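Technical appendix A lists one of the benchmark inputs used to test multi-chain prediction within the project. The record comprises two sequence entries:
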Amino acid sequence: MTSLPTRSLEDQVRSIVAEHRDKRGALLPILHAVMEDLGYVDPAVIPILADELNLSRADVHGVVTFYHDFRQTLPGRRTVRICRAEACQAVGAAKLADQAQARLGVTFGETTEDGAVTLEQVFCLGNCAIGPSVQVDDRLYGRVSPQQLDRLLDVNA
Amino acid sequence: MSGPDETVTVYVPRDSAARSVGADEVAEGVAATAAGRPIRVVRTGSRGMLWLEPLVEVATAAGRIAYGPVAPEDVEELVAAGMLDGAEHRLRLGPVEDIDWLRDQTRVTFARVGVVDPLSAEDYTAHGGMAGLRRALSLTPEEVVAEVTESGLRGRGGAGFPAGIKWKTVQQAESALKFVCCNADEGDSGTFADRMLMEGDPFTLIEGMTIAAWAAGAQEGYIYIRSEYPDAVATLRTAIEIAYTRGWLGRNILGSELSFDLFVRVGGGAYICGEETSMLESLEGKRGMVRAKPPIPALEGLFGKPTVVNNVLTLGSVPMILADGAEAFARHGVGRSRGTQVFQLGGNVARGGIVETAFGITLGELVEGYGGGTRSGRPVRTVQVGGPLGAYLPTSRFDLPMDYEAFAAANAMVGHGGVVVFDDTVDMAGQARFAMEFCAAESCGKCTPCRIGAVRGVEVIDRIVAGEDRPANLKLLNDLCDLMTEGSLCAMGGLTPMPVKSALAHFPGDFGTTTEEQR
């Protein structure tokens, strides 16, 4: 265990806070920036944020764990979200969900062993007229067929 | 007619729904294929005819000629066939304004969406933008509130509360600091109008919020957008920057005494943050726990200050009301449901998209008329109106007019106007179970009926479907639903029984029960 990476994490987090500190209710913008820069909210980040924002660790932990977006482990190189809300259910989302889990060998919220893909479920991507919908990182796909889903899950494609 | 040397303007949507089915590739293809001929590709919002996306429009002497749905691999053939001159082709739909699906609508809030470049301030003003704010600033805040009240505008987010009354409450509250918050946490399945307005005409939301700030005496505004909408976030952030450079935001807006700053905030993937008090907590940097009301947000809202909280479509309707007058808006609609509503057709529907029309259109006209039935070609079995907390209605109720009061009388709700269509393969016990499961997953956990009730609801439905002591368990489910309805702090637990009870009432066979047993 070296102290160097921890040190740099702390610097990174403190500089993120410095950038957003003046915003009202700054914790959410800060957590989004942490996600953007680090890919996840490492549990080690929580005491640093608590210290910077004069909050208790419990308060920060409570916020981090309330929101689905603020994951606490490193995600895969690609995050695939499958919409499971009603409009997509009506056009076969359940089959896509089963297909993705079977193909990757993970359930929702998990990352494949090789670190390639994180599979998540999402409830509505606002593409309800031309579902089923899948989001890959920030890119939205509509009318997703089983064949297209296979291509989206293939991280080497 | 445009000759071969004249620049041809081609419109391709940048709306994320259009992009989800290849609009970016189509736009690139058009630009590349037309090499040699001067061409201008304008990325617009979507017209809302989503089954035709990607929809390409070409400006000709005869108006904008539409082609769709255009797959990226169709582009070369289309250009060779003379698309840039509006020539005939199997994908040619004719002048876009003449397509009956669009022509028969009354586009008020969505008037500019799909027509203009969403980030062009010139387009915005050329199509009537900023006229509402200019007129508002020539009136007193009291007069602006009166105009909004007279228009009959009700909150489009689902609750249908009169906007003018809310604004008046904030205006009359004593405080040196007040806020305007736009609830753009459009988490309900089957709704996408907020997203499309933000991506297709962001300035109208900015203008509406600025008018609200003038009316209420607010200095700061926040647009809370869900993180599932990255394109809407990016579009609004850019639009706000442009608005500042134009003097549409910031100090002394349009030379007036109004100063107003506007910020975009991004949600964290929590459905409950679409509930207004939960959203306010989230904006304050906290867990999105629902607040008890009173105090109402109009008096003690964001950071305890008087706050206007309205939905995207509510605020987006305001500029037109101020520009054209309350009467022009109130002329549309029926009863106490005035103006137009932006209905959204989704799910298993042949022609899904945005139908903006006056209140009073029947559910059947929307689903069978505009929607054209199911995409699968099978019979429609049910539609869910108003999101995951709305009722499932059978086709025998297709005579219902889309009107807040008529729907309430039928134990249903118009909500935000989202309609999700299901064909005859749907299992209604499964849908009822999902409603409870969703509530259990997304409950903020503050009140017991919602937090625990939803978990018990899943279990009871499982027992009913499994055939365990059905009469007793049906009674239990009904009691549980009543308790959640009456005892929950907010609409999440309070309305989850609506899809459950409606599924049970209209489709008892799916629960393995007879009507006799339910009594």
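Chain B has a mean pLDDT of 95. Chain B touches chain A through 61 residues (CB under 8 Å). Comparable benchmark entries are summarised in Table A2.
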